[in-house]
Design a protein that fits this description.
Helices cover about 80% and strands about 0% of the residues. It is mainly alpha-helical.
Length: about 240
């Protein structure tokens, strides 16, 4: 039987998106949502895009968390992660209740904003402690709930802390991993995660594992800034395309 060419193209695009997103996640500790969510939203709509991204992110968490636990600065991680998990359901509620086309535009705006903030190299320079960490986590959780692109809200805070790069990356991996898990659970409880989402996650799991593994292996080899700039400017272009479409 000959498959529908449109379906074949859709499957190929999904594979390429996962390979790119997985590599970014393995390399930087976050960013798979920035890559996958807006592109998946074009293929499948925003709810399935966020659910699939969260599910694949959960697999990445399984791969990366074990090595990150002993490196993480838990004094900063715990308050941020607690606030993020509490705010995820509020963002997810908007995701499932708003018009899909509006949500797609919201995702595009959030992706472009987060990408431009990261490109500019802005970091948090205010006071540190439990309260600022929780505020950052709350923003991260809410944005992740509606779009799975809340990573920079946590990253900007962690990068401002004078820790070693591997500690910063470990903090990011843990917060983003368990926040993504909260997103998926929230959408399952809301009853909007279909069997198709689980099929997509299952089919794309092995490519995702491979891409995350490769990204993690190359973490100490490739220049982070150059790689990040290429990815982020690509995301800005995708966001603009979604907004004007």
């Amino acid at each position: 039987m000959i498959l529908d060419p449109v379906l074949q193209l859709s499957n190929l695009l999904a594979l390429l998106i996962v390979l790119a997103g997985g590599f970014v996640r393995g390399y930087t500790g976050f960013g798979s949502g920035l890559v996958m969510t807006p592109l998946f939203a074009i293929l499948w709509g925003p709810v399935d895009a966020v659910a699939t991204t969260a599910g694949l992110g959960l697999l990445a968490t399984v791969q990366l968390t074990a090595s990150s636990v002993p490196l993480a600065n838990w004094r900063d991680v715990v308050p941020m992660l607690s606030a993020a998990i509490l705010l995820v359901p509020f963002g997810a509620a908007l995701l499932v209740s708003l018009d899909p086309e509006l949500v797609k535009k919201i995702i595009a705006v959030l992706v472009m904003t987060m990408a431009l903030i990261t490109i500019r190299g802005w970091t948090y320079r205010g006071p540190r402690g439990a309260v600022p960490s929780m505020i950052s986590g709350a923003l991260c959780g809410f944005i992740n709930g509606i779009s799975s692109v809340g990573g920079p809200a946590a990253v900007l805070y962690f990068l401002a802390i004078p820790d070693a790069a591997r500690v910063q990356r470990a903090n990011i991996i843990i917060v983003m991993g368990f926040t993504g898990m909260a997103v998926l659970v929230s959408l399952i409880v809301a009853g909007v995660v279909t069997a198709t989402v689980f099929i997509n996650i299952g089919v794309l799991a092995i490519p995702s594992f491979a891409a995350v593994w490769l990204g993690a292996r190359l973490f100490t080899v490739l220049p982070v800034r150059l790689f990040r700039l290429i990815v982020l400017w690509f995301l800005v272009a995708v966001s603009i395309a979604i907004l004007v479409a």
